[in-house]
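pinging the channel bc i need a second pair of eyes. not urgent but kinda urgent?? the chain im working w is below, pasted from the shared doc
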Amino acid sequence: METTLHPVLSCGEGAASDITVFQSREGTTYEVYLGVALLERVGADRESVSRKMLVGRLCNAGVSQRELSETFGHDTRTIKKWGTALLTNDMDEIARVFAGRSGRRKVSPELIRYARQLYRERHLLGLNYREVIIRKIAAVFQSSVFL
């Protein structure tokens, strides 16, 4: 099977590296080469976690954040966050950073399920069921939520 690759990023100029990134003709994958050896192949989907991790690893390898931003279309601050997260050993931090904007949700799915369950039982909570639900959520989740 013959595949045509287009060079996307060559890291040999400013950085002391022989890393080169190519994109397939179809635009579906990126292939990362170290010299002439294929290092990895990742999907080119913009929301792909493997693609985001590739950009973070390239940032950690010393590739210019500006060049990565121009090549892959992400903000330099985001690229720096990805690189920094990959250097930690904290899986929760890595998951939060690579989840994107939905990673810092104040209301978790568990909290929503609990609130809905309490709301279904509101007839047992009295006329001030709203305040009772807010207090119970604060007690269980240590979170202040105004429904």
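so Residues 109-141 form one domain. and The mean pLDDT is 84. — does that match what u expected or am i reading it wrong
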